[in-house]
Amino acid sequence: MRMLVSGSGGLIGRALVARLEADGHLVHRVIRDGAIPGAAAFDLATRRLDLSGLPGGSLDRIDAVFHLSGEPLTPRRWSEAKRERVRASRVVTTDLLARAIAAADTPPAVFVSASAVGYYGSRGDELLDETSTPGSGFLADLCRAWEAAAAPARDAGIRVVNIRTGIVLSRANLLIGLQLPLFRAGLGAHLGSGRQWMSWIALDDTVGAIIHAALTPAVDGPCNLTAPHPARNAEFTEAFARAVHRRSRLGVPGFVLEAAMGREVVEDVILASQRALPRRLTETGFDFSFSCLDDAFAAALAKRPGTFQVPGDPKS
C-alpha cells in the first residue's frame, strides 16, 4: 500500500514510518518548506500544500494519510507567537490536507489525523471516553479546532479518525527526556498534589493503534490512544523512579511550577487531570502490548530514542 505521513520526523512519526516500511508499505512524506521528489510539502507562509513531488502530482495513488504534524508543546511559558505557531502547525496543516484529500479524483480511503486528550480539558476524576464532551482552556479549544479542520475530508465521504493521544512513553518524549536525569539522580518528584490523572500509552502501542485505526473500518471519528489503565501523577512518578531503580519521595508544589512555566502551561498540561479510556480501540479488538505502567516504562527506557521494535527481529 502507498501511505502518506506528515510529521515523519517526530517521535510518533519516526516509529510509524519504521513500522510501515517494515510491513512492506511504500511511505511518502509531507515535509515543510520545499518540495522534493516523492514527498509533498507544506508552505505555512502561503498556506499551500504542494503535491508536485508525489506520483502524478496528486493524492490519487495514496491509500491512507497519517497526519501527525505539530510544533512541540514545550514546558515553558507560551508567548502569543508560540501559540500561533502551535495552532498553525496543527489546524492549518490539517485543513490543507483535508481539502487536498477531498479534491482527489480517487482519494485515500482513510485520513488518520492527530489530536490529543487535551480535548477534554482538566476533568478531575471523571472517566472520559470518545463520547465525552470537550473541556475548556487553550489546549481543549485547540483540539476542537484541530479536529474540526478535518471536516472537508469527512464531508467528501472519506473515513476520518481523530486520534486523541495521551502521554507517549519514550525517552525521546520531551517531557520524559527532560526528567530522566533527575529521576536517575533520585530527584524525581510528583507534581502538585500528585492526584491528577495521567493518560499514558507505550510508543509501540501508539504505532500499533494508529495502524489499527487505519485498517479497521469500524474506527471512525474520535479515538483515544491511551492505555486501559490511567495513573495518578504520584503513581506515574513512582513507576518512573522504579524503572531507573530509584525511589520517589519528593514533590513540587503547584505555585513553584506556575512561577517557572506560567499558569496556562501548568493548568493545561502539567497539572491537567485526564482519566481517558480507549473505548473505541478495545471495542474494535485492539490488543495492547503494554497495559501495565511498569512494563511500559521499562520498555521505553531500555530503547534507543525513536526506535521501533519489529516483532521477531532482535536486532532492530
| Strand-pairing-aware structural class | alpha/beta
List SSEs in N-to-C order: EHEEEEHEEHHEEHEEEHEEHEHHEHH
Biggest sheet strand line-up: 4-3-2-1-5-6-8-13
Count of runs of 4 or more consecutive helical residues: 11
CATH architectural label: 3-Layer(aba) Sandwich
Number of domains: 1
Number of DSSP-assigned strands? 16
- What average pLDDT do the residues reach? 92
Question: Could you name the key traits of this structure?
Answer:
316 residues, alpha/beta, eight-stranded mixed β-sheet, 16 strands, 11 helices, disordered C terminus, Rossmann fold, globular, 37% helix, two-stranded parallel ribbon
Describe this structure as you would to a colleague.
- With 316 residues, the chain is α/β, with parallel strands linked by helices.
- It has one domain: NAD(P)-binding Rossmann-like Domain (Rossmann fold), CATH 3.40.50.
- It contains eleven helices and 16 strands.
- The chain has helices at residues 11-22, 80-103, 138-148, 151-155, 174-184, 203-215, 233-243, 254-261, 263-270, 279-283, 293-302, and strands at residues 2-6, 26-32, 39-43, 48-50, 64-67, 110-116, 127-128, 159-165, 167-169, 189-191, 197-198, 200-202, 221-225, 231-232, 250-252, 275-276.
- The strands form five sheets. An eight-stranded mixed beta sheet has the order 4-3-2-1-5-6-8-13, with helices on both faces. Strands 7-16 form a two-stranded parallel sheet.
- α2 (80-103) links the parallel β5 and β6 (110-116).
- The longest helix is centred in the N-terminal third of the chain and has 24 residues, at 80-103.
- It is globular, with a radius of gyration of 19 Å.
